[in-house]
Amino acid sequence: MSLSRRKLITTGLAAAAGVAGLAAADRIAKAYGLIPPDGDGIYGPGETLTYATQRLLTRHSMAREFPRSMISEKPFGNELAPPIEAFKKHQAAGFKDWTLSVDGMVAHPTVFSLADLRSLPTKSQITEVVCEEGWSYVAEWIGAPLHHVLDEVGVAPQARYVVYRSIEKDWWESIDMADAAHPQTFLTMGMNNGELPVQFGGPLRLRVPRQLGYKSVKFITQLTVTDSMKKFGKGLGSASPEAGYAWYAGI
Predict the structure, then answer these.
(1) pTM value > 0.85
(2) Which of 22, 23, 47, 188 has its CA 20 to 30 A from that of 223?
């Protein structure tokens, strides 16, 4: 999409929101395929305006990266529920058999071991985790950009989303292809010059620094590439909107 066309659409969205209401903005976004999975319902027009505007204006923006001196001395880790038996077994074995399966709309469905993932080009970023509850911390995250895995499996051109699941079966999220291909979206295996601690999602966490912390799911075991979220859960894009949160949580 050209810059001038992007400006035209964005101006139309803003004008519609201010003059004719959010419903008109929703219609414009729908015409250009910018409706989020949770775009229906009472809050749908607002969610759509947020998502569409972000995608038009900040599609390639970068999350702020910090100097090493600003890494939090005591990063806050959410209290974890007691791990399920499958996780306990992996942990007792040092996670040597942990795998990530990638399926859906891909040319080559693949199961990656942690060793496979570590063999991919690895990068680090010092970015902030921001929680919707009001706390945050800065840490170094080390891992393979997600787009390397997607390149390996060959994503179908009509794909629109990547669904990712934790070993905790009810813990799942999804992102659109813009975030999936973004260079800061990491399959994270390390933190602050060491391995990724369990408290922070080890052995494998999908880090999405351009969105609120709940989009960075811990203990990842599966990625599914799809063109529609209708067949997943309640069709809202992830477990988050099913619990009252927004699917798109851009910051």
Answers:
(1) yes
(2) 47
